[in-house]
Amino acid sequence: MSMDTSKGQSFVDAGLYTKFKGDTCLTFWYNMRGNGADSIEVTVDLDRVVLKLKGPKGTDWHKAQVEITGAKRKVRFFLKL
Q1: What is the mean pLDDT of residues 56-74?
Q2: Average of per-residue pLDDT across 66-76
Q3: DSSP label of 20
Q4: Which is more confident, 47 or 34?
Q5: H-type alpha helices, 1-81
Q6: In this predicted structure, what is the pLDDT of residue 65?
Q7: Of 38, 36, 32, 29, which is closest to residue 6 (Cα–Cα)?
């Protein structure tokens, strides 16, 4: 999934849902640069936040790994710009 606000777009939200049960490790790369970078949030079963990144993080790409345990329904990966 990719979102780009370099052309002045703002207030854009996108979510990616995946269904699974049990334990897993979610790994992804992210780049949050500039004033338009708001947040990335990963939630489990719609109510347990396991990762929240806010604000600009520079120009480099960063690798995130999140251990997810005890998932019962679904995991949501949510971007907000």
Answers
A1: 85
A2: 83
A3: -
A4: 47
A5: none
A6: 92
A7: 36
Chain-centroid distance of CA 39 in Å reads: 7
Cβ-based burial of 70 (10 A; exposed 0-12, middle 13-18, buried ≥19)? exposed
**How does the average pLDDT of the chain come out, rounded?**
78
Q: Where are the domains of the chain?
A: 13-80
* Region 6-28 average pLDDT: 73
For residue 76, with 0-12 CB atoms within 10 Å meaning exposed, 13-18 middle and 19 or more buried, which class applies?
middle
- Residue tagged 């207030």 (tokens): 11
Question: In this structure, what token pair is assigned to residue 29?
Answer: 């790369």
Name residue, tokens 């004033």: 35
Exposure string for 2-19, b = 16+ CB within 10 A, e = fewer: eeebeeeeeeeeeeeeee
Distance CA 35, CA 49 (A): 24
Q: At 45, give phi and psi (nearest 5°).
A: 55, 30
